[in-house]
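B., you asked whether I could sanity-check this one before it goes into the benchmark set. Here's the sequence:
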Amino acid sequence: MRRFDLLDALRGIAIVWMTLFHFCFDLNYFGYLKQDFYADPFWTWQRNAIVSLFLLTAGLGQAVAAQQKQDWSRFWRRWVQVAGSALLVSVGSWVMYPHSFIYFGVLHGMAVMLLIVRLTVGWGRWLWLLGVVAIAFKFIAPWGHAAWPELDFLNERLFNPIGLISRKPVTEDYVPLVPWLGVMLWGMAGGTWMLNQHPRWLALNIGVIGRCLAWLGRWSLLYYLLHQPVLMGLLTAASALK
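And here's what the prediction gave me:
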């Protein structure tokens, strides 16, 4: 399948931003910073933007795959890599944070969303509307809980992946279908429109820095799995040398 440097570079930007964010998070964990990463808008909005960029590029990638007629066998090979990596993240986070381990973070969410997006290939403009609905339900859910207390079961861990919650679960990373599926659907819709109307945009010359980011973006999954162990290892060593 042909790759587009611009798409990979966008993913590379998300990787660099994520690395800086997690480095600050780790500095906070080791006591070098004093920040509230869970409530301070400066950090929570950055986290949302990073996740949005990853999911948007994933949707764009699915649009490219559909346009190039990617078969199901190739899709499943990549999907198994994502789902398997999600399991590794759960195990690793359980070791580090046993009381707030990641059971439905960005990779878990992506695994489910990729299936949904793959099955909605060809829905055209309806993808924009589905994206709006997915995002809107994030704001509708608290109102629904207030009106119907019986919906409280949706706050239980079993139903957390849906995202129709009234209180955030205790976990280090949480990327449910509502609202995040909407972002990937918009990526798919936008990518399909771009390929149909302005196919040259993805083939633009992005320069040396852009190509470096594109190279990084091609290894996003492996990088995602390795960057935190490396950062934590370096900071652990630095703390031991103090």
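One thing to flag: DSSP finds eight helices and no strands in the chain. Otherwise nothing jumped out at me.
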